[in-house]
Amino acid sequence: MTKRLAEVAKKAGVSEATVSRVLNGRSGVSEATRTSVLTALDVLGYERPTKLRGERGRLVGLVLPELQNPIFPALAEVVTASLAQRGFTPALCARTIGGVPERDYIEMLLDHQVSGVVFAGGAYALANAEHAHYRALIDRNMPVVMVNAGADVGFPHISTDDAVAVEQAYGHLRSLGHEHIGMVMGPEDHMPSRRKLEALTRIAGAGWSVERTSFSMESARLAATKLIERGATGLICASDVLALGSIRAARRLGLDVPADVSVVGFDDSALMTCTDPPLTTVRQPIETMGQAAVDLLVNQIEGGGVEPDELLFEPELVVRGSTGPAPKR
């Protein structure tokens, strides 16, 4: 108990006696100090006293599907900074293969009496995945915001307009003379990939093909190899990581990028200006989206009514060295 008091006091920047008064519900403590102590308790992973468990702290969960794709740490940086400016403490929950499942993170966040949760990818992004664990959030009236397209599970979404992204990428490749265009997309039930394909079907008609893959560089290499062998000279990819795998595929086949194959990514994640060649990609407005997600979440926390709608943000095509004129045949 003494160790716990000391740790919480240090984290909150108050005395152990003050921590004791808060935990025992005694008077003589300002509301700001009381909130700081309870938040420190949550962050350190200690259970609140029973009489305080019904009160939510200033803790907000941020659930990420992975950290290997640099777009997710970039979004986390924006969201955590914006939360801190609003007086909230972020609790980062990043999933890994074979690690803690999303449903367990939800249970943990609920046990810690979080004020709300931001999801930046997860089971909701897969149409055929299990979504029942989100019911616990709905039952608790938990403020939630989900980033990017997903199944309708009853929460508001902040999304990049996938249709516009594909229009920009496809229009760019067509303007360079590419007639045979391939799509390196995520799994069939991956909602952002599904919306990209639906958009291409509307605007392109024939002259393109698709390969589905998981979101890893090696699986993208295999998918892109199949497309190139079928004659694709331009590739549109569902992420920058998939685009880098596609460039690797072209080189393994003895081809040059962009002289023989042009590649367009999606995200404009960190260091894409430093790749060889620098990657042409469709930029997600991560800073604007992250701040909007926090604004929407805080509005819910403060009692504002929010409909479970989707806010769409327009992406931007960033042309670099991985795209060029179609090869003459």
How many structural domains does the protein architecture include?
3
Percent range for helical residues? 40-55%
Radius of gyration: 23 Å
On the 0 to 100 scale, the average pLDDT is 89
Keywords for this entry:
single chain; 329 residues; alpha/beta; 434 Repressor (Amino-terminal Domain); Rossmann fold
Sequence-ordered SSE layout with sheet pairings:
Elements: H1 2-12, H2 16-23, H3 31-43, E1 59-64, H4 71-85, E2 89-94, H5 102-111, E3 116-119, H6 135-139, E4 144-147, E5 157-160, H7 162-175, E6 181-185, H8 191-204, E7 208-212, H9 217-229, E8 234-237, H10 240-252, E9 262-267, E10 280-283, H11 286-301, E11 310-313, E12 316-318
Parallel strand pairs: 1-2, 1-3, 3-4, 4-5, 5-11, 6-7, 6-8, 8-9, 9-10
Antiparallel strand pairs: 10-12
